[in-house]
Amino acid sequence: MNAVANLSEQARAGEDREPESRLREIPYNYTSLADREIVIRLLGDAAWAVLDDLRAERRTGRSARMLYEVLGDIWVVDRNPYLQDDLLDNPKRRRQLIEALHHRLNELEKRRDATDGVRDAKVGQLLRAAGDAVLQFERRFAELEQMRKKARRLLLKHSREDNIRFDAFSRVAHVTDATDWRVELPFLVLAPDTEVETAALVRACIELGLTVIPRGGGTGYTGGAVPLTPWSAVINTEKLDTLGAAETIASPGVPSGTASIFSAAGVVTKRVTEAAERAGFVFAVDPTSADASCVGGNIAMNAGGKKAVLWGTAVDNLAWWRMVDTDGNWLEVTRLDHNLGKIHEVPVACFELNWKDGRVHPDKAKILRSERLNIEGAAFRKLGLGKDVTDKFLGGLPGVQKEGCDGLITAARWILHRMPKHIRTVCLEFFGQARDAIPSIVEITEYLESTAKSKGAVLAGLEHLDERYLRAVGYSTKSKRGALPKMVLLGDIVGEDEHKSPPRPRTSCAWRTPARAKASSP
Questions:
Q1: Are 224 and 403 in contact (CB under 8 A)?
Q2: What CA–CA distance (Å, rounded) separates 62 from 154?
């Protein structure tokens, strides 16, 4: 596996120790962890310090190999859910494995040399730690079996049996997201059929003492869907795929006549985009993962995309959203006095929060309590940066940019926009020093913002490609120069007047545009 949770300070400090701390002598270790991390994980910090000392005094190495075999057997089962399921289904095979582990430890006990008191004490300490690890390994199967029975009995009250997944394939499929960080296998995976079912499953997981991890398409790059404890339940929302039509219905806090669309949390982003386009509108949230990401994750991550330049990120485009909170109740958040644009442009953004009984359908549930949340608009953006990914609190606004830590998003209604009639896509190639070209990003943005009202041209998107990226994608230079540009900017400039061409940006760096800029119209 690629990561490990709760490493001690000694384990982390060991990264800078001698190269032997990266040795991999433990058998069956197909993970990225070296012997040090595995020993610390199974036997503890003190055991690794002792083992590291004995490593330097090694004589035949036979005892070390026998100890490593014990650790290797425990480790490979611990990290392989297919082996876990096989041993749970075959008590006899499990008993034989445990007996073999004890046999190896007994043989190690026989090989102890009592004439060397100091060394023998260290060996004894290691054997006691290894014996405890074997006993814990044995107890884990009984604990796992008992917990599965208890969980299945409770969860079946709220969902179908095929939605409650303890199988190895489901657990492996939900061990990581796009980060490929692998810390712990989840205890189980839940795939609710309906929104109401989701709230019931969250309450059941709380009763079982499980950590709840919401998951959509699994495309996140921050590790928000990565289990950090073996006693976790991943709730996959992909079956919550209800998608409404683009419509202009009355909605609290939204001006009449405003187009919007309803989507459940498991709807793939691309489907919302296509539904909006069919009705002649634009869905502003367009991350690069749009073909696989789900809208619930877009809210939890406050996702943006190229259109964020024009209409902002997810938080700017939400009329309201619904989630299951950490008590298993509904929490509905409604934006009041929506400005239909970027949220940081209003002095104060107002939200109405309503908690409802999670045991009833959200449309019929009784309101338990209400609260009004007023957040300074400027607090949603960091000056000169835009979206501040380090601000998880975000003024205390529930759900948005929290990565699933304060609840599970189940549904939302989104504001839709109309794209101006004409679009020009301009490609700018920069040669010379990259540091001289980078300021042009800010200069182009500021110039178009300052002339938007007078000239009618608005920047709808600006994408930066550096030299490494250009090489990776095999970029073909548009200019007559033979060299590859140091930087390329792709800008979408929109407006209602076809005859107003994209303005020439004033920039201090050496730049060159292709003879014919790419242009397209919707």
A1: yes
A2: 49
456 backbone dihedrals φ, ψ, rounded to 5°: 80, 0
pLDDT score for 257:
84
Q: Which helix (H) or strand (E) holds 55?
A: helix 45-56
User: Can you read off the two tokens belonging to residue 275?
Assistant: 């539904």
The answer to whether the CB of 302 falls within 8 A of the CB of 314 is yes
pLDDT higher than threshold 50 for residue 330: yes
Phi, psi values for residue 137, rounded to 5°: -60, -40
Which pLDDT tens digit goes with each residue over 121-130? 999 999 999 9
In this predicted model, what pLDDT tens digit does every residue of 198-224 receive, in sequence order?
999 999 999 999 999 999 999 998 889
State the pLDDT at residue 1: 33
Cα 461 to chain centroid distance, Å, stands at 25
- Within 10 A of 497 (CB to CB), how many other CB atoms are there? 12
Element (H, E) at 488: strand 487-495
Residue 395: closest CA among 410, 370, 375: 375
Can you name the residues that pair with 186 across neighbouring β-strands? none
Contact 461, 384 (CB under 8 A): no
Closest CA to 243 of 312, 295, 176, 287: 295
Q: Under DSSP, is residue 260 helix (H, G, I), strand (E, B) or coil? A: strand
One-letter amino acid for residue 386 of the chain = G
Residue 520 pLDDT > 70, yes or no? Answer: no
Lowest mean pLDDT among 89-93, 225-229, 476-480: 476-480
Burial class (CB in 10 A: 0-12, 13-18, 19+), 210: buried
Q: Provide mean pLDDT across the span 476-502.
A: 82
Rounded Cα distance, 75 and 133, in Å: 11
DSSP for 335-401 reads EES--SS-GGGSSEEEEEEEEE-TTS-TTTPPEEEEEEEEEEGGGGSBTTTBS-TT--SGGG-SSTT
pLDDT in tens, 337-374: 999 989 999 999 999 999 999 999 999 999 999 999 99
The whole-angstrom separation of Cα 201 and Cα 279 is 36
Q: Within 13 A of 274's CA, how many CA atoms are on the CB side?
A: 8
CA distance 478 to 130: 65
pLDDT at 265 over 90: yes
Q: What is the mean pLDDT of the chain?
A: 87
Beta-sheet strand order (sheet of 330-336) = 260-264, 408-415, 318-324, 330-336, 348-356, 367-376
Determine the Cα–Cα distance for residues 416 and 311; give it in Å rounded to an integer.
Answer: 10
Q: Are strands 188-190 and 211-215 parallel, antiparallel or unpaired?
A: unpaired
